[in-house]
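Sample log: Ig-like domain-containing protein.
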Amino acid sequence: MNVVLFMTFLFVTYELVLVSSVSKYNAELPSRITALSGSCVQIPCRFNVSENSLTNTENIFGFWMKKNQSFLSRESIVFNGSTNIIKGFSRIEILGNLSQRECTTVFYDVMNNHSDNYYFRVETKPSVWKYTYTENPINISVSDSPQPPTLKPTDRKEVMEKITVNLSCSAEAPCPKQPPTISWSNIPQSANITTQLQEKPDKTQSVFSHMTFKASYMDHRRNISCTATYPRNTSNDSTVETTVMLRVLFPPKETHITIDPSASVSVGTNVTLTCKSKANPSNDMVFFWHKCGNVENQLDFGEQLTFTVNRMSGGRYFCIAKNDHGIQMSEEIQLIVAELSVPLIAGCVGGISALLLLFLLATLLRRVQKAKPSSESIVKETDQVILFFFRGLKDRLLPLLTRNIIKSHDPYEAIDFSTNCTI
């Protein structure tokens, strides 16, 4: 009885020692990696071994097994380092120096049926040490389309104008031998871009691109895109894209006035002046109207100024746009009130009166001639008198009409544009 208990004690003690000794061996692998079909996938790998097992070792071999962690199942072995036998893959290459405990491996031309868990195993010779790292499998997931690049910050908060903006775009590089290329589109002219291949904490790699620029009001609502293009051993490369909208806060810009129906109107016309400006935010923007020479200076507030034109409405108008970030004044616009020229009216009235008077005089003379027949010479003299009056009227009236018509069509003649309006 005592012998049985002693043997049981020795067996349990041996199992505990074995478990404790084995548990200190592990492989450093990412738990999961996504690969692109038609490309390669690189698995970063390091492992621990017994110091004694490497002391008298001349050769060390690496193995990879799919799905089944048991080395006894020959069907699960996809790579045998001792015989260089590869199953299910066109090529598998261990890049790491196994004597330095490095086991980084590249699987080439991966396909969808390669998706599964994989286990790493080490064997040494002539000192026999064999171990499968069953507690550290890696799951390889093969996809037909790559993951979209990550654009940070993903939710670009509003930035003030003239502030430096930093955007970063990263794309996974499961196959560093054929990394994706990153390109930017719809970027500001002042943008500065740097791109490089980086190693992540889990030892996998990605292509990282960083862009900086100073925000301008013209960049507001600009859609900036980052595109990653993956080379593949197929007919077409794979392209994926991520876009972010930039929002810029800025004071009023490009403030100007439009006038309807025109800048030259007559008395009694309804005129609408509209103040237009770009700003963000724009929903809280306010407008103020001013006229040069106005005693009260400010006419009204609001985006539009509407009034009926009178003789005093002519002059120079301007508006001011304001939001939480600043203020801007528009250029002045000249409103011309067109009126008929007084000399022209007087000239026209005088000319018409003279014509009527001359017509009456000619009619009277004709009647006198019919009542008292006269010689042919008297009739000719009368006709010459009438012709003389008409010619004289034409010589006097025509220059007057011409001069006043030309003057009435030059409404800007009396305006002095040399001085600017001040608030």
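Observation: The mean pLDDT is 81.
Observation: The CA atoms of residues 199 and 205 lie 4 Å apart.
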